[in-house]
Amino acid sequence: MAATADGLAMAQKVETFVREVVAPFEKDPRCGEHGPADDLVQEMRALARAAGVLTPHILANGHHRPHQDVAVILRASGLSPLGPLAVNVAAPDEGNMYLLGKMASDEQKARFLEPLVSGRARSAFFMTEPASEGGAGSDPSMMLTTAVMDGNHWVINGRKAFITGLDGAGVGIIMAKTDAGATMFLVELPMEGIRIERVLDTIDSSMPGGHAVVSLENVRVPADQILGASGDGFKLAQVRLAPARLTHCMRWWGAAARAHEIASEYAVRRHAFGKQLIDHEGVGFMLAENMIDLKQAELMIDWCAAVLDTGVLGTQESSIAKVAVSEALYRVADRCVQVMGGTGVSRDTIVEQVFREIRAFRIYDGPTEVHKWSLAKAIKRETAKRIAN
């Protein structure tokens, strides 16, 4: 199986739009340290809507495209760090749309999903907690945020950290611990009791609203705003996280490919020691290694997308993809900076930002080491079983 003709056609439309319309906004002063301003996001989305490329991973009938189509579309969107935002396939919104599309009731879809699909609102996913307090990070079982029933409402208390896009978001999914276990709650934002303590200064700058530390103080959520049932939180998290790891890989593949294009053009135009820079073996070989890493990452993404479309993508496969692709794309971005020398660490091109964003990607949605540890545990179990038999 492969991407459909319709999916490939949409990917081409997205690529043309991102290269010709979105890329010029990369120098816009509204791109700040904590991400692009919301008025810039809405301006780009209006252009995407007019071009017929807004929310391209969702079909007109509301169904999610096959992930093999999503792979080519999101890779095209990632050719600019602003591309996923402009066409409405950025994290965390894309992952939240997928989760709500799969698990929300019809009433919840109308209230919480429709504003996201239409591009009118952004969203936030409240799971990670401050490490200094021993809260949930890569291990969600350590969750400290609580939800207690009071009449027909749940009352949520706790603190969250690294909540991407909260500043300016209109929809939130809060993960908290009830007597039944981890549970997800849907809320409209801003909301009484949810307070941004500060927006962290981080290495990346592509996501509007940045990454916030948040206090939840007696947040009252009506009982009908539970997603699924009380205690379903970990199960629902897996519905969201495995595909979200893969779509992260798709978007950042596009960014790395763009950086490679820029570095290759630089190496052909720049001369040193009597010849084109690319003709120096050290430079030419780095670009050749980029080509290899990009192709291997593309094949890994496409393989996982095909598996996901069968409905059997497991945590092992998504962990393998997350590690392999994030590490490969980081090597690509790092080589691009090195090939371009001083220009590579300047903001004269987008390469410097791509390097910063992909460095952060090695941590987000689970650091490389956590995924390797999980895979090592699986190897231990499977090997012990084989020995026993």
Automatic annotation (TrEMBL):
Required cofactor names: FAD
Q: Does the keyword Oxidoreductase apply?
A: yes
Which residues are in the Acyl-CoA oxidase/dehydrogenase middle domain? 131-202
Q: Which InterPro entries match?
A: Acyl-CoA_dehydrogenase (IPR050741), Acyl-CoA_Oxase/DH_mid-dom (IPR006091), Acyl-CoA_Oxase/DH_mid-dom_sf (IPR046373), AcylCo_DH-like_C (IPR036250), AcylCo_DH/oxidase_C (IPR009075), AcylCoA_DH/ox_N_sf (IPR037069), AcylCoA_DH/oxidase_NM_dom_sf (IPR009100)
Give all residue intervals belonging to the Acyl-CoA dehydrogenase/oxidase C-terminal domain.
Answer: 231-379
Name the chain's protein.
Acyl-CoA dehydrogenase family protein
Determine if S-adenosyl-L-methionine is one of this entry's keywords. Answer: no
Superkingdom, taxonomy of origin: Bacteria
Q: What is its EC number?
A: 1.-.-.-
One Pfam family assigned to this protein is Acyl-CoA_dh_M
Q: Which UniProt keywords apply?
A: FAD, Flavoprotein, Oxidoreductase
- Protein species of origin: Phenylobacterium conjunctum
Question: Which Gene3D superfamilies does the record cross-reference, listed alphabetically?
Answer: Acyl-CoA dehydrogenase/oxidase, N-terminal domain, Butyryl-CoA Dehydrogenase, subunit A, domain 2, Butyryl-CoA Dehydrogenase, subunit A, domain 3
Molecular function per GO: oxidoreductase activity
The UniProt entry's sequence similarity note says: Belongs to the acyl-CoA dehydrogenase family.
